[in-house]
Amino acid sequence: MTLHSRLLPPMPVAEDYRAHVAGFGPLPGGGPALIAELDRAGLTGHGGAGFPAAVKWRAVAARSKPGSRAVVVGDGAETEPASFKDRTLLALRPHLVLDGLQLAARTVDADRAVLYLSRANDSLGRTVAAALAERRGADTVPVEVATAPPRYVAGEETALVSRLSGRPARPRTVPPRPYDDGVDGRPTLVNNVETLAHSALIARRGAAWFRAAGTPEAPGTVLVSVSGAVGVAGVYEVGYDATVGGIVELAGGALGTPSAVLIGGYFGRWCAAGRAWPVTIEPRSLRRIGLSLGAGVIAVLPAGRCGVAESDRVLAFLARESAGQCGPCHVGLPALAATFHAVAQGDERPAALDRLARWVLEIRGRGACRHPDGATLFAASALEVFADELRRHLRLGPCAASSAAPLMPTPVLAPGWR
Ligand SMILES: Cc1cc2nc3c(=O)[nH]c(=O)nc-3n(C[C@H](O)[C@H](O)[C@H](O)COP(=O)(O)O)c2cc1C
Ligand code: SF4
């Protein structure tokens, strides 16, 4: 299994602008040729949906016009609690992300460039501010930093657009997509910060170089946040030919016997460890067993830990994080989470499991954004993978492992949307 260091430096030391330019060379020009190169490279988005980067860049470039010039936004909010790859990338290689943002701005003819972070005044915010100060004068379009409110859906692109347009950071129904009607009604390119960093490398080294890693179907490398019961939790850069088990080995191996693995974060799915282990993270092979890497999350649950209790807490988190605008999400997710919790506590009858399975189908696809879809996907996988444990909880109440310290983070986020 190869550990790559295209995006992340071999040593975890933050790179300043001088070292960055010395290592990568000056920033090329951008423009239509870069869009063609991104197309040839087959770069897809790393924010979760895997949308082809060139298609989005081309759409925004075509819509930018005098009086309504494009806006480019680097989405570094990283609101998924099990993900930490974006903040790691920004902390170690801020200039690669900022290069990508500049190239995007030049290529789509933007006159506004924004880096969207969860906080501006923490150490990451200070690193980014220092990086911006170092490159002052070198950038064609000055970059502003904007902050997302601490809510799960605030990183979603239409919530981001609302926030940057002076409204609460709540998602809205699409279409219109941001490239048609974005920040202040202008065509807006929203890319995850990792996508932008890959673009900056492709601009310098070309599509053939990019394709030398990964597979013909899924070229390039990906940053994966590996957590849970592993030797060294952290961010690992691998090609799409890497297997789930191989990535866990890179992270020092599983601690104890792994029982299940969560792939794709809280909008992802649990999978029995034995089933997931040999599968490559190429989207097509993950899809074959109903999985998706999402924004690049792998979390390992060891035998002896309670998948029901872990899922219970994550579902409560996802229910709290509904933006409260759409009935099926606002009402359905808390009902789903409450019933799951009652099952976990042994306070329900077996019929509750059928009710949960039915609600999963009824809630799915009925929100303005993908929040309820992601939450119900996660719930469905918990019902399937932990079916035996759930029945045991119903019969006997919470197991001894339920009281162990949580493995999966479920932060209590601040209320409010502004
Ligand atoms: C609830 C929700 C939260 C999201 N949070 C983030 C986030 O924190 N960062 C991010 O880059 N994308 C996030 N996304 C995905 C964005 O909406 C969007 O697809 C992405 O930023 C596009 O960039 P990409 O094409 O480079 O992947 C989220 C999506 C959803 C549905
Ligand atoms: S589906 Fe849920 S999170 Fe998405 S906009 Fe509607 S209420 Fe908000």
Protein architecture, described:
- The protein is an alpha/beta fold and 418 residues long.
- The chain folds into three domains: 17-211, Rossmann fold; 224-302, Roll (Ubiquitin-like (UB roll)), CATH 3.10.20; 307-403, de novo design (two linked rop proteins) (Up-down Bundle), CATH 1.20.1440.230.
- Helices cover 42% and strands 13% of the residues.
- The chain is built from 17 helices and nine strands.
- The chain has helices at 17-24, 32-41, 53-63, 85-92, 94-108, 123-134, 157-164, 193-211, 244-250, 273-276, 283-288, 307-320, 327-330, 332-344, 351-363, 371-385, 387-396; strands spanning 70-76, 110-117, 143-147, 188-192, 221-228, 234-239, 258-263, 269-272, 297-302.
- The strands form two sheets. A five-stranded mixed β-sheet has the order 6-5-9-7-8, sandwiched between helices. The protein has a four-stranded parallel β-sheet with strand order 3-2-1-4, with helices on both faces.
- Strand 7 (258-263) and strand 8 form a beta hairpin.
- The longest helix has 19 residues, at 193-211.
- The chain is globular.
- The mean pLDDT is 95.
- The structure holds flavin mononucleotide and iron/sulfur cluster.
